[in-house]
Amino acid sequence: MPDLCGVQLRGPILNASGTFDAIAARRAFGDALLDAFPFDCFVSKTITVAPRQGNPPPRLWETASGMLNSIGLPNKGLDGFLAHDLPELARLPVPLCVSVMGFDSGELARLVAAVGARPEVALIELNLSCPNVETGVLVGADPDATAAAVERVRAEAELPLIAKLSPNAADPAAVARAAEGAGADGVSLINTIRGMALHPTTREPWLGARSGGLSGAAVRPVALEQVAAVAAAVEVPVVGMGGVASGRDAADLLAVGAAVVAVGTESFRDPAAGRRISAELAAIRSARPAAERGRVG
Amino acid sequence: MTDDRRPRTLAPPERRIAEVVEARRLGAYDLIVARDAIGPANPRPGQFYMLAAGERWGADGDGRPYLPRAFSFARVRPLPGGQGADLSFLLEDVGPGTRRLGELAAGDPLALLGPLGHGFAPPPEGRRPLLVGGGIGAAPVLCWDDELRAEGVEATVLLGFRGAGHAAAADLFVGAPEVCTDDGSVGRRALVTEPLRAELEADPAATVYACGPEPMLEAVRALCAELDVPAELALEAGMACGYGACFGCVVPTVDGYARVCVDGPVFPADRLVAHA
Fold first, then answer.
1. I need a surface site. Which of A108, B47, B154, B253 has the fewest CB within 10 A?
2. Does position B276 have pLDDT exceeding 50, yes or no?
3. Chain A contacts of B262, Cβ < 8 Å?
């Protein structure tokens, strides 16, 4: 069984934050969703201190083998999350990781302290890298800012802290080392890559927020390279993600050093994608020679 | 939405493969019938499915279509035995996704997820159902009319189309819907809101159910608000997932942004706010 920062998981497949709303999915699919839950650890959509409506529509644009989004972290805010969402998420059959984002280090500390005090929560992900809010990229792109943010909140909770890194950084490995040095128990990457699309006739930005984040199969090679670079640079576990759509994609990220793998946009195409990818990955691993299994782990 | 009367049938929690059993041209549209042996036999009119061709999805040379596309079903025929259904979908070629779906032929695999979202709520006692469809928005109006007829209710159906090519969709209806076209080639040369106003002024004890392009829905919303007639509007929106995961398909409501996929696609008109 994989271990993520001391939390035992039944398997190595997570969801990427913001790509699966387990509460809405349970309403759409009923208890059948829980009977065959597609992930081995559930990562919540990012919460902020104050409630957010998110960005104005349109929020989506289909690209070549991928999509742009400018969702903008809509959420009920910390109090709304704790009162309404957390009790429902606690009923999921897998450990819960809560993703948090602060607009300053004080907010981030407040979120970590409040979420970290809840026994339903197993892990906290620090979203330092959302491209769709004004401050997101700035912290996650800069090693010093990342270190300062992690340091500020490290003592607020005993739970493992995972720093979600930005691909929109000059040197993601340097940011990862800074997060590790400041006390992060793990790192996760990649978040979406900044991108833009224009309206086909007006040539004005299509997305309501003008620019957005690219995800899907199109980002897979970028993710593989960045996960490899980060995994080589840090000792802490790496949650690898970016365009994972098959067991082979997951095996690739594990091969370059990810401890576990997250599925994002592929879940939009099929809510059961995580389960299918798990099965494909298990088949790949069982087909591998025993000597190689022992070597890679 | 509190006091929610809009019905919905739950979907199996995964994408499945249906078989196209019929595909034909219907004027400006393509009509495909998919045999969904695994899904529920009783999706509710107004609910929708996410569709993708089972093969060569993303084959246009630019990596598109990539995401599945959302479609209200137009007609449902339960399969013998109580499980599964033949589902009809009305398609119009407006981009790489609808083009690929329109190429499907009998025997081809169709990947689908659904039924999703909420359907139309039955009209309250004492109010007659008045159904309004514009263009491809005729699809959910058709299955709602089918269901009302099965319950012995003959609804008034008003349909608006650009011209004769699109008005071919009116032939799918069992009764005799009133047809308007922009160019007068079939039925009246009028916007569909003209006969709607006449109907409502003659007898306002109605509930309006409408699906169509955004300007039509906005006109229906404004008209119903003016005449104080309750209405349910089935909205269309670009969406990545269809089940509440991506938060991409929001529309403004009196309660803030709502997701068309899980909060709709059928909304009580008085919850929506004018936009665009």
1. B154
2. no
3. 24, 27-28
SS3 A252: helix
Q: Which residues of B touch A (CB under 8 A)?
A: 10-15, 52, 58, 62-68, 111, 113, 116, 237-241, 243-251, 256-257, 259, 262
* Residues A45/A17, Cβ–Cβ less than 8 Å: yes
CATH topology assigned to domain B128-236: Rossmann fold (3.40.50)
Nearest CA in chain A to B116: A28
Query: Contacts of residue B63 in chain A, CB cutoff 8 Å?
Result: 63-66, 217-218
Give B128-152 pLDDT, tens digit per residue.
Answer: 999 999 999 999 999 999 999 999 9
For position A186, which CATH number holds?
A: 3.20.20.70
Q: Is residue A201 part of a domain?
A: no
What average pLDDT does range A280-293 have in this prediction? 81
Give the distance from residue B145's alpha carbon to the nearest chain A alpha carbon, in angstroms: 25
Greatest Cα pair distance in chain B: 55
Nearest to A268 among B11, B240, B262 (CB): B240
Give how far A47 is from chain B: nearest CA, Å.
Answer: 14
For residue A288, what pLDDT band results from cuts at 50, 70 and 90? confident
Amino acid B2: pLDDT:
46
Looking at the predicted structure, is the pLDDT value of residue A94 above 90? yes
Partners of B65 on chain A (C-beta within 8 Å) are 62
| A130 catalytic residue (yes or no) | yes
Asked if the model's pLDDT at residue A136 lies above 70, the reply is no
CB contact under 8 A, B240 and A71: no
Residues B44-61 as b or e (16 or more Cβ within 10 Å = b): bbbbbbbbbbbeebbeee
Question: Average pLDDT of chain A?
Answer: 94
Tell me the angle at which helices A273-287 and A247-255 cross, rounded to the nearest 10 degrees. 60
What is the per-residue pLDDT across A12-58, written as a single tens digit (0 to 9) for each?
A: 999 999 999 999 999 999 999 999 999 999 999 999 999 999 999 99
pLDDT over threshold 70, residue A293: no
Is the domain spanning B16-116 CATH 2.40.30.10? The answer is: yes
DSSP H or E stretch at residue B196: helix B193-202
Report how far residue A170's alpha carbon sits from residue B130's, in angstroms, rounded to the nearest whole number.
59
Substitution target in B67, B99, B236, B272 with the highest count of A β-carbons within 10 Å is B67
Number of separate domains in chain A? 1
Strand order in the sheet with B29-36: B69-72, B48-53, B109-116, B16-26, B29-36, B85-91, B75-78
Query: Inter-chain contact A60–B248, Cβ cutoff 8 Å?
Result: yes
